[in-house]
Amino acid sequence: MFAVLALGMLIYRDFLFGNKVLLYKDTGSDSLNIFYPNYVLRSDYLRNVGFPSWSFQVGMGQNLFPSVGGMLLTPVVWLPKGAIAKAIVYQHLLYIVISGLLFARFLAGRGLTLGSSLLGAVLLSFSGYMCMGSCWYFHATEVVCFTLLLFAVGHAVDRGRWPYLVLGVAVVGLIGAFHLYLCALFLCLYVPVRLIERYSWQPLPILRTSVLLAAAAILGVGLSTIVSLSSVYALLNSPRGSGLTALGKQLSSFPVFSLESHLHYITAALRPFANDLLGTGYNFRGWQNYLEAPMSYCGLFSLVMLPQVFTGCARRVRVIYVLFLGAVLIPTVFPWFRYLFWGFQGDYYRTFSLFSIFGVITLAMTAFSRYAKDQSLNLWVLGGTILALMGILFCPLPEMQAVINPGLRLTITIFLLSYAVLLTTGQLLKRQRLFVWIIIALAAIEIFYFDRITVADRLTVTKQELKERVGYNDYTTDAVKDIKENDHSFFRISKTWRSSPASDPSLNDAMVFGYYGTESYSSFNNVNYINFLMAVDAISANATEPETRWSFGLTGRPALLTFAGEKYVLTEDPAPFQTSQNYEVIKQHGPVYMLRNRNFLPLGLAYTYYLPEDLFRQLPPSMKAGALFYAVVLSNKDAANGENLSQMSIEALQDAANSATDVISNLRRSALNISSFSETRIEGSIQVNEKAILVFQTAFDPGWYALVDTNPARVLKVDAGLLGVMLGAGQHHLVLRYRPPFLYAGAFLSLVSFVIFSLSLWRWPRIRLPPLRARYAFS
Question: Full-prediction pTM beyond 0.85?
Fold first, then answer.
């Protein structure tokens, strides 16, 4: 794998030896706005708190435990946060080498020659999908995990070594629960086909082997349950998984054989030639965007060799290959089948592209291996392939030519013709084995040329910027440090600008700078956090999925921010705040002004009055924020159960709002007196004269449980999505703790699975395979 590493070092040389960092400012801004903040948050959490659990730095509070599996697959989070930015490129190179090594072993296990196995490894490791992993890092993680799964299936089918399959499935499960669905889909499609390809049609032995391998896969699911069970819960308790903004109904109702736009088919036809043939980053001119479009580039040589696999193979194998192409083309032509692939939860390509790449490279390298073994190519098919590919590139449709980069098209043409000439010359001279290595060298040049465009010819953060007072190293660092050194209470900070140097705004500054805010950019925000924002009209009640992903929290809503515990404001323009008596400037760090909110409210507010949720939602927006200062909002069920709180009428609420009563002082006096605070444990005392509900201004999660005077107390959802604890009259000592839901259940299932795995490995280290009656189709 030295060749893969060497090529990777050449492609990423600007990041290894130059001034660039693998953090993109252009359309790959998720590297700066999602991934990097999450890496920093988890790095800090590991050092300052412990194993990731609840964090108040994500939105208004969120469970981090479902991402633990991803942390095990992301080495940089174990580094100090100051080293993460520069280390990301080394992590990506590690992914490249591991993927290449595993895929080369997979191809070698199929009986392919050294040269074809090496070229296949290079094509996968530097495919368009892996290159996208330079800024959408989870793509690279997927490549590693699914390549391991592919390798594991090969060992199980070829040698009966089922333990690799158990571990492969378990590793995929670390990514997340949804990837176990993708894993099951992959295995259900690939394993039977692989068995038929290798052992011919022997129904009973193949069925028996499939069942044994399915049992091994289920055991792998069990091993990952400690993480995947929490991941399932997190998915179901997000806006997408809960149905709040799910696309299932919309996508499933799409007509089965309806077509996409012309631009979609143009993009699908052209992107296999080069990742950037239709433009790079924000200059991408194809369907959707640079990420969501098909990521099907895996080397021009794959396109040249793919048709050759259909020549010189058994009929049953040819049928299998045709079915594979159908499985790739049908979801591309008819989008309903692509929606079906995603369980009607998305309209993108992503992992579907990865599975397609696996198949295309494997078939192309199968044909190349035959060539390396001195078997003749069908030159008529080769000529027809080149003509067909050139016909696509130079198709006279104005709509197609308008989006193509003519310079890249010329380069692609040269490479295609060069491959055809080399293949033909090697066959005519009967020196195929020599020309195999020449072709590999040419493919490496092609990969280097095209991947440099995708990876390096874009706007990124520089190593110099990491040292300057810009971006995530601006004066916010000094201001937050100053505040924390002088104030050890719980408080939230509002920040009026985004520090990320990316072209798109970041909503995750709190993760990087280590403070508590209310904003969050995440694909799976806590659904109760979103429900609360909807209830107070911070987000539209008919919010779309992107609105719940890019959540601005309570930004720009002073009353709600005060309720949520805002104590400080960081701004570069204090003028708007100086017109209000509620804020005072206390210090300045460079261009950053620190302001204090005079009406600050602590965490944990006690209420003896309530409003029914239905009634609260009917209030005009101008009254909702004020209502939260006077009464707790209860669901109809909780209100009907009679919590012995008095219901506040609309008239009483209006009278209270119009009176001179100092509601802020009253709330402070009756609030929880916190004696100890951490991310997962809050301890304090409180005096209430009558039965009350203590409201914590954080998102509700059933992982929270309370002890009041050492006795378990009821925890309930209040204010449409916040955390509440029931209190009786009197002086109380309260301890609030957090444990990720299903942690013990998942750990128990993983332990049981591990015991079964260990005993099975000792008793049956291999499974008995069907007799090999038919020769390999690729031999």
Answer: yes
